[in-house]
Design a protein that fits this description.
ECF transporter S component, ECF_trnsprt_substrate-spec, mainly alpha, 8 helices, 207 residues
Length: 207
């Protein structure tokens, strides 16, 4: 009787101890990369980043919930950074509406934890190719979601402040997606694949 009662409790546990440890470790790595500046590559109007990589690794190796938690920590750190040392693009967002700035920084980063997990789960490829494809595709989705959120929430006032048509803002976002997103995606695939394969060999893999 006692065993029968314990089983539902175990199934309803939000996260296992292993998942909590992985989430904490990858969150710490994300914050370290952010605080040291190693996770950001400053460009003209925004910062390219590799801070999404721990989120992708967490999703593939420990599951959706771990990826979402690490992504949330990534987003919160990015939001705090916009309050302290924003790029030119995010400076406008934080000055225009700090709530919109928080949404732009945090929500896309949580979603990439879900996207990475679902892509990895449903792709039917050889394992290294599966991991690399997940990393590349998730990174591109991250760029599109982040810039798309900016365009949707503050694109119109940004265009008015710059004295340009709204379509120009869309073109700017598309250009950033190509210039930043593609290199970020390639770097992500190159970094994530060997790390995840090593963790899989060590027995760490999402169900």
């Amino acid at each position: 009787m006692n065993k029968a009662k314990a089983l539902p409790y175990q199934q309803n546990t939000f996260m296992s101890v292993r998942q909590l440890v992985v989430a904490a470790l990858l969150s710490a790595i994300t914050i370290f990369l952010g605080m040291t500046g190693y996770g950001f590559i400053p460009l003209i109007i925004m910062n390219a980043t590799i801070l999404h990589i721990p989120t992708i690794i967490g999703s593939i190796t420990a599951g959706r919930r771990v990826g979402m938690i690490v992504g949330f920590m990534f987003g919160v750190f990015s939001f705090v950074r916009t309050l302290q040392a924003p790029s030119a693009l995010m400076l406008f967002a934080v000055q225009y509406n700090v709530v919109a700035d928080a949404v732009i920084c945090i929500v896309p980063r949580i979603l990439i934890g879900v996207i990475a997990y679902e892509l990895y789960k449903h792709l039917k490829l050889r394992e290294p190719v599966r991991v690399a494809t997940t990393a590349v595709a998730t990174t591109i989705c991250h760029t599109v979601l982040f810039l798309g959120s900016f365009t949707a929430l503050v694109g119109v006032p940004y265009a008015e402040a710059q004295g340009i048509p709204f379509m120009n803002v869309i073109n700017i976002m598309a250009g950033i997606t190509v210039v930043n997103g593609i290199p970020e995606a390639i770097v992500s695939g190159l970094i994530v694949t060997p790390i995840v394969m090593a963790l899989h060999r060590a027995g760490l893999k999402a169900n």
